[in-house]
Design goal:
Shape: elongated
Largest sheet: 3 strands, antiparallel
CATH topology of the largest domain: hpI Integrase, Chain A
Strand content: under 5%
Structural class: mainly alpha
Mean pLDDT: 85
Distance between the termini: 78 Å
Order of helices and strands: HHHHHHHEEEHHHHHHH
CATH superfamily of the largest domain: Intergrase catalytic core
Length: 302
């Protein structure tokens, strides 16, 4: 990659980390999007100032031919817009080539969720008396009880949990902290893990992490992903399950039982309530029930 393009990317990523304080995973996503675009430009032999709207359109045509979805292209264009706005503000370019471009149109795809019965089976399948079983059960119960992201779950420090109060302090995207409540069942599972599991897993080692592996190290996202899939198989759940599915189920089940959108937004750690609104899908039967219950003219007058 030409040095000018590489330097501009490095400056932007440093800005996202140092000034915007975005999470590492988010910055890696930006970097991957920019890598795709800038490597595409490498074959064009053009400078930063020469990048035009047409070349960006050519890039997206190339992406579509490779089978990349409209939704992914929408995310990539959002990244490029942020990149070129930054370059314009820094006076590294004189015009923004993304200004006249539109985001690709795509329907929003809802992530699949688990039914309450499936969640019950999953949580029941994690039970056991071994230290790893106590840990797995505590992690699954806490994940469903709080709806936190898997990256937030595995990075929880021991001091983040307050069992008596029933709150956990979560460090979310952009290093923003939030307090999320959890219920009695999660309290019991976490208490059992702390009393009878964590110390045995550490085996004399020191760790500030709440959840540790059998080798006494901090739990990783990949390992927990494996744990949740193994537990789902034992529970007879055939869906291709992921930690995010429990996060989605948390939000869906709360809203289905009447929780307000703003409270769910705060617990999920969404900066924009529009992101939380994808969880508000309800079936027509529930809409009819709400209409009958609350509309002043939904019933015949005697």
């Amino acid at each position: 990659m030409p040095r000018e393009l590489q330097n501009s990317q490095d400056l932007f990523l440093h800005y996202l980390a140092a000034e915007k304080r975005l999470a590492d995973n988010t910055i890696r996503s930006y970097q991957a999007d920019l890598d795709s675009f800038l490597f595409f430009l490498c074959h064009k032999n053009i400078s930063l100032q020469q990048i035009s709207s047409q070349q960006i359109r050519d890039f997206f045509s190339h992406c579509l031919k490779k089978g990349i979805s409209l939704r992914s292209n929408g995310r990539r264009l959002s990244t490029l817009r942020g990149f070129f706005r930054f370059l314009l503000a820094e006076k590294l370019i004189t015009t923004d080539p993304t200004k006249i471009l539109e985001l690709p149109k795509s329907s929003r795809i809802l992530p699949e969720d688990l039914s309450v019965a499936e969640v019950d089976r999953l949580l029941a399948g994690s039970r056991g008396l071994l230290p790893v079983s106590l840990r797995n059960s505590a992690m699954l119960h806490l994940l469903y009880a709080t709806g936190m992201r898997v990256s937030e779950l595995v990075s929880l420090p021991l001091m983040s949990i307050n069992i008596n109060a029933g709150f956990v302090r979560v460090l979310g995207k952009g290093s923003k902290e939030r307090l999320v409540p959890f219920g009695e069942e999660a309290k019991d599972r976490i208490s059992g893990y702390l009393r009878h599991g964590r110390g045995l897993l550490l085996n004399g080692k020191k760790s500030t992490s709440l959840f540790v592996t059998a080798r006494g190290k901090a739990m990783t996202r990949i390992r927990f992903w494996q744990i949740i899939r193994e537990t789902a198989l034992r529970a007879g759940i055939t869906k291709k399950i992921s930690p995010h599915m429990l996060r989605h189920s948390f939000a869906t089940h709360l809203l289905a039982r009447g929780a307000d959108l703003r409270s769910v937004q705060l617990m999920l750690g969404h900066a924009d309530i529009a992101t939380t609104q994808i969880y508000t899908h309800v079936d027509s039967g529930r809409l009819q029930e709400i209409h009958r219950k609350f509309h002043p003219r939904s019933r015949k007058k005697e």
